[in-house]
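Possible regression after last week's pipeline update?

I re-ran a chain I had predicted before the update to compare outputs. Posting the input and the new output here so someone can diff against the archived version. Not blocking, just want to make sure nothing changed silently.
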Amino acid sequence: MSLQVSAARLRLLLGGALVLALLAAGITVFLTRGSDGPAEREYAVPDTLCGLDVPRELYEPLFPPGRDLRIEQSYEGSTGLATLDQCRITVDGELVIWSDTSGRDGFQAFIDGRSAALVRETGELGYEVPEGTPVSGEFEAMAWPGFAIAGTSCEPGQIIHSFTVGLGASHLADDAESVETFAALIQPFMAAAVDASVCSPGDNPASGYAPDRGTG
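New output (post-update):
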């Protein structure tokens, strides 16, 4: 009798342990899936990038999977971009795409001279010009994984001598893919930004850029 009771009790204990294990596994899967978020975009990619007309196929790769897209700041409708203008795009509350304009006339000056407030938003850039990939085209431009920058001199007599635009994104994990994407995007993005700015590109001895610095 005691052996039968012990065997029954053992089966009961094993069955309970199995149920608990299955429940734990289910909870783990649920929590993991919930924390990862959606695997696809559940929002519409905007018709412009930061309010600037750029071919959609060039910037679409910057937009990650997620549900809630918000354009917190944009260059939309601007005809006077100069310095300290910003674009900020978030997905599910996280900053995924950003852009800043500056009157600084050098890429390293732009990278190193960002204010504490901008660094808090986007993090330290930590890029070095010698490590960047030059991008041929109308404007002097370079690309790194997750970031690109372009600049031009402005005709004398305008309120700024130089116009520099940086563009960053956090979604592309593969470095080679990221550089390729930014290299294809930065020239048309810069051209659209210049069209919306106070800068008319031209030779200016007070600028660190020159009209013929583009390598294309």
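Follow-up from reviewer: compared with the archived run. The beta strands are 69-73, 86-91, 94-102, 133-134, 140-144, 147-153, 162-169. Marking as no regression found.
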